[in-house]
Amino acid sequence: MIREHLPVLQVVLPLVAAPLCLLLMRSVWAWLLAFIVSLAALVISIVLLREVYAGEVLSYAIGGWAAPWGIEYRVDAVNAFILIIVTAISVVALMFAKTSVAQEVAGDKQGLFYTAWLLCLTGLLGIAVTGDAFNLFVFLEISSLSSYVLIGLGQDRRALTASFQYLVMGTIGATFILIGIGLLYMVTGTLNMMDLAARLAVLGDSRTVQTALAFLTVGIGLKLALFPLHLWLPNAYTYAPSAVTVFLAATATKVAVYMLLRFLFQVFDASFTFGAMPLGGFLAVLAAVGILSTSTVSIFQDNIKRMLAYSSVAQVGYMVLGISLVSSAGLTAALLHLFNHALMKGTLFLALGCVAYRLGSVRLGAIAGLGQRMPWTMAAFLVGALSLIGIPLTAGFVSKWYLILAAVERGWWPLVVVVIAGSLLAIIYVWRVVEMAYLRPPPEKLSVTEAPLSLLVPTWLLAGANVYFGVDTQFSVGMARQAAALLTGSSG
Amino acid sequence: MSAEAALIGVILVPLLGALAVVLAGSRPNLREAMSLGAGVVLLALVVRLLPRVLSGDWPATVLAEPIPGLALAFSAEPLGVLFGLIASFLWIVTTVYSIGYMRGHGEAHQTRFYAFFAIAMGCTMGVAFADNLFTLFVFYELLTLSTYPLVTHAGTREARQGGRTYLGILMATSMGFLLLAVVWTWQLTGNVRFTSGGILAGAASPLVIGILFALYVFGIGKAALMPFHRWLPAAMVAPTPVSALLHAVAVVKAGVFAILKITVYIFGLDLLRDTGVTDWLLWIAAVTILVASVIALRQDNLKARLAYSTISQLSYIVMGALLVNSTALVGSTLHLATHAFGKITLFFCAGAILVASHKTKVSQLDGLGRQMPWTMGAFFLASLSIVGLPPMGGMWSKWYLALGAIDAGYAVLVGVLMVSTLLNIAYLIPVPIRAFVGKADAGGEIQIREAPIACLLAMGVTVAGCVALFFNPTWIVQLARQFVE
Fold it and tell me: Over the range A225-251, which residues count as b (16 or more CB within 10 Å of their CB) and which as e?
């Protein structure tokens, strides 16, 4: 009985729990509630995944109003994969948040913090699970507004300007998406995505449809920090509380990539977006320039969090690169990297959170000799770093393998060069940190000890996942393949 | 124990050895016993594989399949077993040497040193027994990473710089070229297994074959073909046992070994001969041989001189592969063994000199032969092996390489070998001559005594190995012939 309502429960549960968090002002209870709800959401997403794993599609009509009039929630291999990533990261990040947030966020604001967290989770899950274009916009706003709050709660006063900057850019993005959806509604008279797809296929090409595609691509591009629309991201990641950086870096841009995939491959037909419209080459060029330029910028960052933020923009570039290849191998690579990147960036930001907890700083100069003082933290960072570079037996290597394979298959050699150059640049920026932590003596007066276990456990959970999914790729590659087949299959 | 289980064992034993080293960290004698024990067990396992391989078998086993179709799999074929034998035997010898060196030199962080040393050996075994390109690549990369802490062991500015060059060049070549080549091979054939006769025949145009081959040859930066050789001299900041075993034997030989294996089992000699894609690369190998020797001549730092000598000698092996005929490949295989024994002895001597007298430069060695007769004597004998004079094993490998060059119709390469021999004499032989004949400068030399006994013991074994290879190279030739045919 409850089983058939799982698609909606996935969203409703955190939505209902969010205001409760605000009532439970006492921090530990608010945290506990948020954690339990996240855990429940993870369980729901696992159950959903098991149901759609064989290729089935779950359709749920909200309030019993049948699609296309009512709002439809639709779970298939693509968004079940996204749901798992979002909920699992939320659980791990919340495990970390208990200790970390207690230090970084003022006591009276912690209830608010967890409320915003759950709302953000609601929004991200909603975007993934809904089959309705306007509903997607609503959830996008929920997740965006709550993430502005989360970022603004950072210790540094610059968190406020970072949040404001993101607010402005994010609102422009959301507005563009709304305009795009509005234009589609204008020509088709429907908001249900499957219905939209069917009607657009009949309707064919028109200037309105083209404009809608352009607005949607740019709007989503802003949310996923596609170069050169990424300027909000480095500040937002740098000044947000540690746990928030982990959560947003591993999920928010991923959900945006998902939106892009849904619109480009399903609402519009791939033959339209990449055939009639020159979007493939357009995205490929932006991704390539983005990878090279932001990786290079990373090398010159003094703040490690900011360095990794720029690296995230580059990594998003890899995903877009995979998409722009418009082949099932390319899409597999993009989806696989979406999963693997959540693991590696999650690990790196968690390890940095441990460093921030002990040192209060994540500047490069501050971590000299930390390999001896905080061996477990830095070892986890090293694992994440190796994965980011793409060393064999880590998750990052699997992504890189598929990405290069997809590009070689298409014979797009410049893109092969870009992928390889990107990972070589990653060695440079990551190794500055490794060298500093392991090959410099710690300053004499420094008396830091290893991070507490409550921070190390979630960090090592993700670090371990990087290795596990580097050796056993049955789940990650299997899901990515199936999702890619679904996306390309339906586009004919 | 079956051969298949032994194959997993050769990878695991060194890794377990590393664990044991860490656990025994606070008790140095027990710790070194763990290293030695792991070495002995490893050697026994590799020897266990030898009869199966000599009888023409090719036992294989799969450990895991990380990416569908791409397995972490190991197998024992003739060349791999030979490389495994050399590396594991010399690991034991080097451990004995390390005990004398590390304690005599008062090095810090010895537990870390022995642990990473053992891990590096595990990775070397992974390269030696890789059943496919994917496994080879995995362990090739891990070998780079596991040796990085050894190169930067001292933690000084110089060590950091050296480490950057080391990691930078090896990673850039392997990720830039080798990985691309492996992916491309997989894309063309859907297969990356090492197979007799190669897998690429008929899968691509001669142009693509040529590009692929170049990607492999330059992508395997550990073979130190110019212009990707700079990492090897940079790695000399490491403690001497590391330079001896890893940067004269395990790491560099893993590079040339990979080139040999890919030449024979991925491309196949027939395909390479028909397409003629190796011709231009031959000249690069020849240039590397000569230029590196000339640079070696100008190095005053003894370890740097030996490093450039290694670059030159590695290109002998690469050249043998590029000549694509069975005689030359036998020469390459032999050189893998003879150069290993010769060069490790030379590094042992350089380290012994450092420990006993704190001298690092050739120009400081005048008269040292009187204080350290055994060390300098070993240096002289090993030099003879590198030069290629009887009664040292180095003679045979040069012999076969020269024959192979004539077979392939490249008489000019015989000339290159001869000139290189003269250069070898010019940069190696003066070292012992200075030590025995030169006059020591006054003062200070009274305290200098012969190297620690553990070091001398190790040198004795490797020199004996050089001589043994002269008198009995036939089993290696037999393995090499099996490998080629």
Answer: bbbebbebbbbbbbbbbbbbbbbbbbb
Q: Which two tokens stand for residue A313?
A: 């923009």
pLDDT (average), residues A16-22:
87
Q: What confidence category does residue B441 fall into, taking pLDDT thresholds of 50, 70 and 90? A: low
CA-based nearest residue in chain A for residue B152:
A439
Residue B163 has pLDDT above 60, yes or no: yes
Name the residue among A226, A335, A364 with its Cα closest to residue A288: A226
Mean pLDDT value of segment A30-47? 92
The alpha carbon of B288 is separated from its chain's Cα centroid by a whole number of angstroms, namely 17
CB atoms closer than 10 angstroms to residue A376:
17
Torsion of CA B275, B281, B283, B288, to 10 degrees: -160
Confidence of residue A411 (pLDDT cuts 50, 70, 90): confident
Q: Do A424 and B167 touch (CB under 8 A)?
A: no
Give the span between the Cα atoms of B60 and B354, in whole angstroms. Answer: 44
Which segment of A375-384, A400-409, B195-204, B317-326 scores lowest on mean pLDDT?
B195-204
The CA distance from B216 to the nearest CA of chain A, in Å, is 16
**Beta carbons within 10 angstroms of residue B119's beta carbon:** 23
Going by C-alpha positions, the residue among B87, B105, B97 that lies closest to residue B460 is B97
Tell whether the model's pLDDT for residue B445 goes beyond 60. Answer: no
Range of the domain at B465: 278-485
Query: What are the two backbone dihedrals, phi and then psi, of residue A72, each rounded to the nearest 5 degrees?
Result: -105, 135
User: Would you say B315 and B259 are in contact if contact means Cβ atoms under 8 Å apart?
Assistant: no
The residue type found at A298 is S
> Is B66 part of any domain?
no
Tell me the C-alpha distance between B23 and B19, whole Å.
6
What does the pLDDT look like over A460-476, one tens digit per residue? 999 999 999 988 888 88
Name every chain A residue with its beta carbon within 8 A of the beta carbon of B149.
438
- H or E element at residue B34: helix B28-54
Q: Which two tokens stand for residue B241?
A: 């046992």
Is residue B318, in this structure, part of any structural domain at all? yes
C-alpha A72/C-alpha B254 separation (Å) is 59
Q: Average pLDDT for residues B345-371, to the nearest whole number?
A: 85
Encoded tokens for A164: 């404001």
Confidence of residue B446 (pLDDT cuts 50, 70, 90): low
- Chain B: residue nearest A432 by CA? B164
B25 inside domain: no
Give the separation between CA A70 and CA B406, rounded to whole angstroms.
83
Hey, what are A100's tokens? 């970390």
State which amino acid sits at residue A208: T
Of the candidate ranges A28-42, A353-367, B437-451, the one whose mean pLDDT is the lowest:
B437-451
Q: How far apart are CA A393 and CA A84, in angstroms?
A: 22
A220: pLDDT confidence band, cut at 50, 70 and 90?
very high
Q: What's the complex ipTM?
A: 0.89
Whole-number average pLDDT of chain A: 89
Predicted TM-score (pTM) of this structure: 0.91
Q: Do A441 and B155 touch (CB under 8 A)?
A: yes
Does residue B147 sit at the A interface (CB-CB below 8 Å)? no
Position A293 confidence tier, pLDDT thresholds 50, 70, 90: very high
Question: What are the chain B neighbours of A390 within 8 Å (beta carbons)?
Answer: 175
Q: Of residues A56 and A136, which shows the higher confidence score?
A: A136
For B302-359, give the DSSP string. Answer: HHHHHHHHHHHHHHHHHHHHHTTSHHHHHHHHHHHHHHHHHHHHHHHHHHHHHHHH--
Q: Does any domain span residue B391?
A: yes
Closest CA to B326 of B412, B213, B404: B404
Chain B residues closer than 8 Å to A420 by CB: 175-176, 179-180
Interface size, chain A vs chain B, as Cβ–Cβ contacts under 8 Å: 66
- Domain count of the fold of chain B: 1
Name chain B contacts of A409, Cβ cutoff 8 Å: 187
